[in-house]
Amino acid sequence: MWRTWSSCSWPCWRSLSTCRTMAQPDQPQPAEPTNRRRQRRSRFQRVAAHLWSEWRIEVLIVLLIAIGTFLLVERMQIRETIVSGLRSGFRALEALGSGTLQGIGAILQNTTLSDLIGYVLLLGALIFVVWRVRWRLVRSPRFTVHKCPRCGNDLGRIHRRLTDRVLSLYLPVARYRCRNRDCWWQGLRIKPGQPE
User: What is the pTM of this model?
Assistant: First the structure.
C-alpha cells in the first residue's frame, strides 16, 4: 500500500517532493535522528566559538567604539551619572589609600629594629614553609602516580576547571579521569615531568 501525506513519518514542514515516504511502498523507514536540533546547536556553537577566538579583539574594539560614541552623542543624563559615580569611586579609593598609608606610617613609627628583624624572620619562615609543602606534594607518590585511587586503572587527562588553573599557579596540576567506565573517578594529579 502507498503512503499518503497523513501517514508520512516526516514532519509536515517538508514539501511533497522531498518527503521520502510519499511515493514509496509501505516499508520500514529509517527514523529521523532525534538529536538534529542538538547537532544544529553544536554546529552553531562551534562556528560561534571559532569566530570569537579569531575576532574577539576586533569585536571588543568595535563595542568600545560604539559605547564611547553613544556616550558622547546621547542626550540623556548617563554621562553625568557615570561621571559622578566615577568621582565618588575615586574619592573612596583615595580615602582608603590615605587611611592605609597613615596606618602603615603609624606602624613604622612604632616599630623598633628588633620588631623589624622579627617580621623579616617570620616572613622568611612562611616562604620556606610554602616552598617545602610544594616540594613535598610534587614528590608525593599519592599525587604523582597516574593510577586511579579507587580501581587502579589508568587515568586520562580532561579539561581543567578555573580553580585548577588558579591552584596550578602554585602547584603544577592537571585534572584526570579514570578510564574505567564503571568507576569514572575524577581528580587532580601533579603534571609529569615538572621541575622540582
Answer: 0.43
